[in-house]
Specification:
62% strand, mainly beta, 15-stranded mixed beta sheet, single chain
């Protein structure tokens, strides 16, 4: 049934987050343990510009398991989430939000050993997300869309984690990844496929080092990487790297570098 808690959220949003929040609707079902928020918007400090928004946020939890100390979240879904990140020097447009939510991080209490939280999170599905990153100096705008993240299970008693993720670049190209990670040992295996990434996105950074007017080219890679998060220097990889239609043009219109196609097959990097 619909809940009036959306009014409560909007009433105390600034108190707890320092930001304005708007909620289209909030539905709570105490029989199924589900909560659904539609048309959620978190604004910038000006209270007018959206910082984060999503058309739907949903979660479900098995209520009867809470009575025995187990938190079993059977579904976490986010549909059409969008976020805009702006960087000015070493400052970001979310710094105030982090400070407000984190509060005083000093822990003066005596730490005691407690039993691990019996937490299960199943069926995490973030679909069609979009991220826009803007750097004021040098001015750079990187935008991705059609993003997805899928995690079948996060379990307190199972260190193994499988993550499928990917997105498309607005300027062209896409990235898809599959990662298996063991939280206990730190070991991971990742397969990444980058298709026709447009290098023009990197032009603002290149012109800081070279007097050039343009950078063009399409980069594609397929890499399989094995490593360990505890010893990041120990990494092994193989795959292929291909570059098509590379062109760097200087300030007077002359090509400094041009190549129709280059491909490197990597047997192993260790």
């Amino acid at each position: 049934f619909p809940s009036h808690d959306s009014i409560f959220i909007e009433k105390y949003d600034v108190t707890y987050t320092g930001r304005e929040i708007r909620v289209g609707s909030l539905f709570l079902n105490f029989f199924t343990g589900s909560a659904t928020i539609k048309d959620f918007v978190l604004y910038e400090k000006d209270g007018k510009t959206p910082f984060f928004k999503a058309s739907k946020l949903e979660t479900r939890i098995v209520l009867k398991k809470i009575l025995v100390g187990t938190y079993d979240i059977t579904r976490v879904q986010s549909v059409n989430p969008e976020v805009t990140i702006i960087q000015i020097g070493n400052r970001f447009n979310y710094d105030d939000l982090v400070r407000t939510i984190a509060g005083d991080t000093k822990d003066t209490a005596t730490k005691t050993k407690t039993d691990p939280l019996h937490l299960f999170i199943r069926n995490i599905d973030i679909s069609n997300y979009a991220i826009t990153y803007i750097n004021k100096s040098p001015y750079t705008k990187i935008a991705i869309n059609k993003g997805y993240v899928r995690i079948p299970l996060i379990a307190w008693n199972d260190p193994k984690l499988h993550v499928s993720a990917g997105f498309s670049f607005l300027t062209g190209g896409s990235l898809d990844t599959q990662t298996d990670y063991n939280e206990k040992s730190g070991a991971y295996h990742t397969t990444a496929s980058l298709k026709e990434f447009n290098l023009s996105m990197l032009y603002p950074y290149l012109k800081d080092y070279m007097k050039v007017k343009s950078l063009d080219g399409l980069l594609s890679t397929t890499l399989r990487v094995n490593g360990n998060a505890n010893t990041p220097q120990k990494i092994a990889a193989n795959g292929s790297i291909a570059l098509a239609n590379l062109s760097i043009v200087d300030n007077v219109g002359e090509k400094l570098i041009a190549c129709e196609k280059t491909e490197v097959v990597v047997d192993s990097i260790n």
